[in-house]
Specification:
159 residues; mainly alpha; 5 helices; 81% helix; elongated
């Protein structure tokens, strides 16, 4: 039946499984790339928030240092502030993201999309996101603190 018809092809179950697995890998890679782009954009928004906060309050920070705030206390204040931003980001991202991911799974399961029947929580991906976000936040906070401390106190108060 297959030989005379050039539009038909006979494949074994192993070949079909191989094709299905390779298409799943391609979809997974595309989704991870999309998630990476969204993660970078989100991280840039977090950086923008932190930098804008420090730049707009430069005079206030200078005034606080003029009345006795040490460089170490300034660094701790900026670090704690960035922890609040990061915790808020993680809370929103994990809550909304996990909810949307599970709803997506339920929709795929109900429609029979690609035979999806089991849900597993993406723990590894979640931990990677949390670690990268916290490390990035620590780096940005350190850079901001050093940048603020480079200027003299008089320059910060005058700006």
């Amino acid at each position: 039946i297959v030989d005379p018809n050039t539009q038909l092809k006979l494949m074994s179950l192993d070949e079909e499984l191989s094709v299905a697995l390779s298409s799943m890998q391609a979809i997974r890679l595309a989704l991870y790339m999309l998630i990476a782009v969204l993660g970078v954009v989100s991280f840039l928004a977090l950086i923008n928030t932190l930098v804008t906060s420090v730049i707009t309050r430069r005079r206030e920070l200078g005034t606080l240092q003029a009345i006795g705030l040490s460089n170490r206390q300034l660094g701790q204040m900026l670090w704690r502030e960035s922890i609040v931003f990061t915790a808020g980001t993680l809370l929103c991202a994990l809550t909304v993201g996990n909810l949307l991911g599970y709803l997506g799974f339920m929709g795929a399961k109900a429609s029979g999309l690609m035979g999806i029947t089991n849900y597993h929580y993406p723990l590894t991906e979640t931990l990677i996101m949390v670690i990268l976000l916290v490390l990035g936040q620590l780096l940005i906070t350190r850079l901001l603190s050093r940048n603020v401390q480079k200027e003299s106190l008089v320059q910060r108060i005058q700006q």
